[in-house]
Design goal:
The protein has a domain at about 45-90. By secondary structure, it is an all-alpha fold. The mean pLDDT is about 80. The protein has helices spanning about 55-60, 65-70, 75-90.
Length: about 90
């Protein structure tokens, strides 16, 4: 399978982080349901450190686009980080 794409960068400022409220992780995980995963619900905030840019990771992706070399998080890095965080909170 192969996919092709194009990067388009908006000329507007990125959204404010104020739009993404921080919330403590719940002490007890609730079962997934329509109610527990309703739109707008903040599930909890996890923190992770990463180096910017991670040249070895970008090389593995074959990525040479300047925005990613300058520190914009690559989509593959976001997925990798998301998986790592999910593994940390898995029960």
């Amino acid at each position: 399978m192969c996919a092709a794409g194009e990067i388009l960068w908006p000329e507007t400022a990125p959204p404010s982080l104020i739009l993404y409220p921080k919330e403590r992780m719940p002490a007890v995980r609730t079962a997934a349901s329509v109610r527990s995963l309703s739109p707008g619900l903040v599930l909890g905030t996890l923190y992770a450190n990463r180096s910017v840019p991670h040249c070895a990771f970008l090389a593995l992706q074959g990525e040479a686009s300047p925005p990613y070399q300058e520190g914009i998080l690559h989509p593959a890095a976001l997925l990798t980080l998301s998986n790592c965080l999910l593994m940390q909170i898995a029960c």
